[in-house]
Protein: O-antigen ligase domain-containing protein
Organism: Falseniella ignava
Amino acid sequence: MRRYVLMMAMMVFLGTEILALSTPVGQLTLYRIMALGGWPILLYSTIIDSRQIKIDANNPAWLHPLVYLIWLIWGLFSGLWAGSFKHWVQASFLLLVGVSSVWALVLWIENRFDWNKLARSIWWMMTGLLLWGLFEVFTNTYLLADLSKLDPYNQFALGWTRRIPVTIFTNQNDYATMLIAYISLTVVRCIQTKQPWWKVLYLVYLILTGLLIFLTDSRMILLSTLLYFIILWLLEYRIDYSAKQIIKLAVLAGFILAGVIIITPSFREKVMHLIHIVGPSMNTGDSRRMNLWRNGLVLFSQSLGLGVGAGNIEYQMQMQPFLPVDGFTNIHNWWLEILVSYGAITFVFYVFSYGMMLRQLFELRNWQPVRRRQITNVFIAFLIVYIFASITSANNIKIEWHWVYFGLIISYLRIEYQHYRNEKEGYYELINHIA
């Protein structure tokens, strides 16, 4: 099964256009087929082949697949009140595929050797997308992109600095979000290798990734990238803060930000544009995004906290455009997408799982050796910046690589906790033997 899940994880980076068939529900890709195919294989293994599925209740990493399963069940149940059956079917299908891939990775990636192979396979596929993006930028050759939307004013002909990489994605924001995940895996590869020339090559890849993120003109991803390396640096030097110190730093940062807003007229005007609902700023992308969020919160309140149903945000936005959004319907916020679509219960479970994932990683780094602790730091930094980076994409439920990536992180947690427990038990056995 290891080879099966490795292949599944790699196939997600082919997107929905390469080696895919169109169906009424959506594109049928190799990744989706393999993710769903894991369930009958699991059934065969347990019933016919009499293999036991190991779900260790004492391993805290299993919390996250269970939360995803609750999310899926609620999403399927939300079809009872969803306004658009078609949109509900499409979103439920994508959610089923995503949750299936997470479960497959957590179940069948059983040890560090398997995990390293999975991380390496995903990294190579992401590297292919990096090189593809460079090819687009330097040759002005786009194989899958719709240039009428991507370059309506023919700016790409003016030079490579005007071009925007997208590869298999619909827009540059989705591609930029993937690149920040690629940065994390590249740092992991750099930590794991002992060859100096490989470290130099990984550094080159990081520089090229930074260049492509800059060319996407995605402000949030650019800021998230800078924040990522700051957090990684702080974690590397083990600067530990108490909860009281963190609160003091947050309050201080709030006062500094408020001071900048008050003192700087241009910055104050920018913030006021985001706060105001109407006015000349209505034609800006930022104000449209804010109104999309407001509209989503209105829809959430109308649903009495149950959510409008899987995949039904866009449908409800079209039916009830409370505030002007110039025809846009995607909510452009991963967190609000979960809240508005799947309701308060699912949202609370997801946020709890996300917070526990961070907490568990912090717990792991307290006992891990240096090299493993550095890998854990990478995922801590990624999870923190992804809180902000995830709001750049129009609809994250359709960006399927993130399911595989979170499956990678959760399987890492499960394996490391198992190692910790094995080492702890071995230590106590040694003490008892000496005694």
User: Anything to note?
Assistant: The beta strands are 21-22, 27-28. The radius of gyration is 23 Å. DSSP finds 16 helices and two strands in the chain. The chain has one domain: 2-434.
